[in-house]
Design brief:
Keywords: Membrane, Transmembrane, Transmembrane helix. The protein has four helices and eight strands. It is of the alpha+beta class and 187 residues long. It folds into two domains: 85 residues, no CATH class; 97 residues.
Length: 187
């Protein structure tokens, strides 16, 4: 097997491993969360690199089998990515500033095929390239009383989330890291 094929094979395995890591485990670092959170694209890249590596094989039948399987895998990854993109598109709503260096990020997305929306809240600790973000809560608007209403900082390491019927969800943050000690899940 030529050296070029071995390098492509290693790159394919790295891309596939990174796709699996991103798919099954989220990242706290904002840089990784926003720029590497594309497991289906990474999976398609792994399949493409595997097909290119197969061209260096001696046996034609094995080359054809690997190229066909890689093409099917890339097609499945692109189809799955298209479905995920269609049903999980997220709209940025804004930020609620808190005590430096914290702020709360608000995002809205459609909940499945229905007309209701889900509001996603996360707390971000700004720190340049080492900025971190953790999930704070989510609220589904399928029942009007349970829909998200507002969020406010109640202290340097505490947040209060309010839904439309007046209930509140207090969330305490770890003073050292900023990570929420609990989350408010109403999805």
């Amino acid at each position: 097997m030529p050296a070029r094929s071995l390098v492509l094979l290693a790159a394919s395995l790295c891309a596939g491993g990174l796709a699996a890591l991103v798919y099954f485990r989220g990242f706290d670092l904002v840089l990784l969360r926003e720029h590497l959170n594309h497991p289906f694209a990474l999976g398609a890249l792994a399949c493409l690199l595997m097909a290119l590596a197969a061209f260096g094989l001696r046996w034609i039948w094995l080359r054809v089998v690997i190229v066909v399987l890689a093409g099917l895998g890339a097609s499945a990854a692109l189809f799955g990515g298209g479905l995920a993109l269609a049903f999980t598109s997220v709209e940025e709503v804004g930020f609620v500033d808190g005590p430096a260096p914290y702020r709360i990020r608000l995002q809205r997305s459609l909940a499945g095929l229905g007309p209701d929306t889900v509001m996603w809240l996360s707390v971000r600790r700004d720190g340049g390239l080492l900025s971190r973000e953790w999930d704070l809560g989510c609220f589904n608007g399928d029942i009007p009383d349970d829909a998200f209403d507002s969020v406010k900082w109640t202290g340097p390491s505490s947040v209060e989330i309010r839904v439309t019927d007046g209930r509140t969800f207090p969330v305490a943050l770890d003073p050292a890291s900023g990570r929420p000690r609990t989350t408010a899940l109403n999805c």
